Amino acid sequence: MTRPLTSIGPINRSLRSEQTHPLTFRLREDGAPVWLAEYHSKGGYAAAKKALLQMSADEIVEQVKDSGLKGRGGAGFPTGVKWSLMPKDESINIRYLLCNADEMEPNTWKDRLLMEQLPHQLIEGMLISAKALKAFRGYIFLRGEYVDAAANLNQAIGEAKAAGWLGKNIQGSGFDFELFVHTGAGRYICGEETALINSLEGRRANPRSKPPFPAAVGVWGKPTCVNNVETLSNVPAIIVGGVNWYKSLARQGSEDMGTKLMGFSGKVKSPGIWEVPFGITARELFEDYAGGMQDGFSLKCWQPGGAGTGFLLPEHLDARMTSAAIGAVGTRMGTGLAMAVDNRINMVSLLRNMEAFFARESCGWCTPCRDGLPWSLKILTALEQGKGQPGDIETLLQLVKNLGPGLTFCAHAPGAIEPLDSAINYFRDEFESGIAKTPVPAATRIKEMEAA
């Protein structure tokens, strides 16, 4: 049986409340799902009732926009702005809301926590969002391996339907909304919203050319909005608590508003997920929440938010966990779930493992990604085996340049290559140590790389 995930760390176990931890205050201590009766007893669906019966669609959009809520899937685009891009034409009566619950980013499991333990919170968030978007149907596009999440979401949807929170004329409001769980086949690229849309339609999961954007032409050619699980789960609290309260949750000076599920994994003493205010420092997460490194290990470097973010050094731990602050030290905050790399790990081996994943998950739609990532993998494999050749590191750096932002069809390749760029920058000597002392003839080298 899978060990329940928890966001309750030793530092905040007794401090969680509706006022400080809007995403996680309803969690049970035993990690069991919060079903409808308990969710109601903890204020559940109060926000939906307010939104459905007392607010117009435009008022909901404006409140979310004013709150400063940004996408929690990694891109960080302002949610209210994204909602406002949906067409205003009232004659367009078929619109869709899609929840991106694919969560295929290595080292990221925050959405799994919310779906397994607080399924009604996501349903309520989608219901309010659907009212704002005038969407009559929603889909939760779920990572296929999340079997428990699928079961819990489907059970919660059944409860919500029976209680009149889904279906026709919800709570007498005149608003109709249906919600379905769709499990994917397990492809990283489905985290890209247009690839997700293609997959939902039964097509190959390739990203689409934009424009048109999904807000204009989305699933089955209709206006569509795609939001992340954690993003949608924030909406009920914003509706009930208001804009000023939500903004006050972040640390003073933070440009990102509210709280965020963040975490640390690796050889730390207490790996986990915690709901913390934006603006907290990475050092606080690492030392106060995760407890620092396990005995016998030291911190070599760390990634702030998933395998597609660049490596940072221990000296960067004083950076605040916001998109701007992490960007200022050279990478992206991503999903906010950090990974500690210990002193016993060889960076070439780590990057070889990462690029193997990214090369396998490429959809193959554009040449730089389709051919460039496997090329980087072959070079890294040779370096790991001590068979690298002079010029290999320069070739890797050229691939980093050629696969950068704006040079590929979507953001898969730029994300895949970002950790390689930072690893070479900070640990070039480990790459250089993989270059063979005796050069290998070119013909032999080609055969070895073709066989790899």
TrEMBL record:
What is its cofactor? Answer: [4Fe-4S] cluster; FMN
Please give the Gene Ontology molecular function terms for this protein: 4 iron, 4 sulfur cluster binding; FMN binding; metal ion binding; NAD binding; NADH dehydrogenase (ubiquinone) activity; quinone binding
> Which residues does the UniProt record annotate as the domain NADH-ubiquinone oxidoreductase 51kDa subunit iron-sulphur binding?
348-393
Does this entry carry the keyword Thylakoid?
A: no
Catalyses: a quinone + NADH + 5 H(+)(in) = a quinol + NAD(+) + 4 H(+)(out)
**UniProt enzyme class:** translocase
Q: Which UniProt keywords apply?
A: 4Fe-4S, Flavoprotein, FMN, Iron, Iron-sulfur, Metal-binding, NAD, Quinone, Translocase
Q: Which Pfam families match?
A: Complex1_51K, NADH_4Fe-4S
Q: What EC number is given for this enzyme? A: 7.1.1.-
What InterPro entries has UniProt attached to this entry? NADH-UbQ_OxRdtase_51kDa_CS, NADH-UbQ_OxRdtase_suF, Nuo51_FMN-bd, Nuo51_FMN-bd_sf, Nuop51_4Fe4S-bd, Nuop51_4Fe4S-bd_sf
What's the domain of life for this entry? Bacteria
Cross-referenced SUPFAM superfamilies: Nqo1 FMN-binding domain-like, Nqo1 middle domain-like, Nqo1C-terminal domain-like
Q: Which PANTHER family match?
A: NADH-QUINONE OXIDOREDUCTASE SUBUNIT F
Q: Which family does it belong to?
A: Belongs to the complex I 51 kDa subunit family.
Indicate the quaternary assembly. Answer: Composed of 13 different subunits. Subunits NuoCD, E, F, and G constitute the peripheral sector of the complex.
What does the UniProt function comment say about this protein? NDH-1 shuttles electrons from NADH, via FMN and iron-sulfur (Fe-S) centers, to quinones in the respiratory chain.
Identify the NCBIfam families for this entry.
nuoF_fam, PRK11278.1, PRK13596.1
| Designated name of the protein | NADH-quinone oxidoreductase subunit F
